[in-house]
Q: What sequence folds into this?
């Protein structure tokens, strides 16, 4: 829990929220925020003050579709070395996971950065693909190696997403009724605040960009409540120690020069216009969807979710992880049925590890 001084500060913030006498529901779009909320018991503190916080589509591994995972598995089973971050390896599909492909003899490797994958490609002649995942936070790191010559056998399968179109989809679908958004601080470090402002202007939606410590989440909740209490709808910056008004212009330019926004499905969502990042045509020699297009045409059809899995509803903020009947029963970290139980940033994994409301059967 909190250190003593932080605990006293937390009590004061929660008391200030309670004094405003409002009942509100906020959504965050960040797996690290979810970890902080559950790990430090903020759910109960905030509920006592009238604030409910729900999970949104903030886990990059979780929103990656079964089709994209199946593409990576198909590449691996057809002689391509596939590299990816560890969380991607265990995401199940109806044709298996990347770890299943590895167990069957495919060359599948965990890497900790794209630079690891580039070095591996330089040490072999056979084709190697890096499966790149993440929001605006990690997309710039994928861009860096493309600014210099790369091994000819190296290519990237981009699963990168960007935040604003997913937020727009939540508004357009109208399923989730929230009074404010806690926005991801690490994304805003890159993008700045401007991309969130249309939601304040068009939908009168209060927003606060927040850091990742317990007091950051509590303070963001206070700032949102205060906006509602005062009848305001603005984009405020709680994470001012790192987030600047216009973000990181160098990283933003790298992304603009490397990627183009494309339409793509997200897990739990239909096709969201201009919500994913594909490599620009000038990088086509390192675009796995082009280099290995013939193999990818053979990817079998896969189910969007395992039977009974409700990850999609969790990612849309419609249910909590504990409300899924599979949670803690047939779906556990040792036997995940969906990505929300696989990724360290997944709501189900976080709830299983830290929540007092676990189901054990």
A:
């Amino acid at each position: 829990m909190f250190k003593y001084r932080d605990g006293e500060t937390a009590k004061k913030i929660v008391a200030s929220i309670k004094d405003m006498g409002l009942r509100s529901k906020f959504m965050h779009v960040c797996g690290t925020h979810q970890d902080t909320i559950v790990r430090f018991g903020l759910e109960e503190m905030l509920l006592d003050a009238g604030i409910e916080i729900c999970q949104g589509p903030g886990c990059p591994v979780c929103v990656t579709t079964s089709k994209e995972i199946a593409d990576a598995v198909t590449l691996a089973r057809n002689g391509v070395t596939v590299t990816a971050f560890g969380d991607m390896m265990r995401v199940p599909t109806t044709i298996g996971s990347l770890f299943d492909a590895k167990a069957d003899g495919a060359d599948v490797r965990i890497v900790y950065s794209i630079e690891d994958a580039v070095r591996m490609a330089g040490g072999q002649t056979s084709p190697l693909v890096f499966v790149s995942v993440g929001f605006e936070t990690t997309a710039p790191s994928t861009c860096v190696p493309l600014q210099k010559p790369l091994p000819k056998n190296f290519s990237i399968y981009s699963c990168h997403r960007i935040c604003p179109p997913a937020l727009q989809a939540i508004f357009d679908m109208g399923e989730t009724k929230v009074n404010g958004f806690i926005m991801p601080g690490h994304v805003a470090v890159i993008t700045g605040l401007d991309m969130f402002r249309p939601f304040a202007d068009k939908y009168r939606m209060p927003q606060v960009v927040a850091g990742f410590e317990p007091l950051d989440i509590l303070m963001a909740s206070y700032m949102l409540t205060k906006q509602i209490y005062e009848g305001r709808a603005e984009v405020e910056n709680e994470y001012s120690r790192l987030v600047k008004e216009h973000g990181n212009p160098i990283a933003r330019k790298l992304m603009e020069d490397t990627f183009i926004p494309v339409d793509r499905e997200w897990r739990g969502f239909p096709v969201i216009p201009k919500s994913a990042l594909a490599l620009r045509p000038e990088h086509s020699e390192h675009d796995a969807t082009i280099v290995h297009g013939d193999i990818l045409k053979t990817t079998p059809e896969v189910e969007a979710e395992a039977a009974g899995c409700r990850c999609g509803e969790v990612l849309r903020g419609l249910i909590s992880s504990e409300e899924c009947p599979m949670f803690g029963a047939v779906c556990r970290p040792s036997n995940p049925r969906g990505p929300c139980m696989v990724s360290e940033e997944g709501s189900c994994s976080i709830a299983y590890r830290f929540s007092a409301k676990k189901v054990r059967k």
Q: What stands out?
A: The chain has two domains: 4-57+175-237, 61-162+248-296. The domain at 4-57+175-237 is CATH 3.40.50.11750 (Rossmann fold).
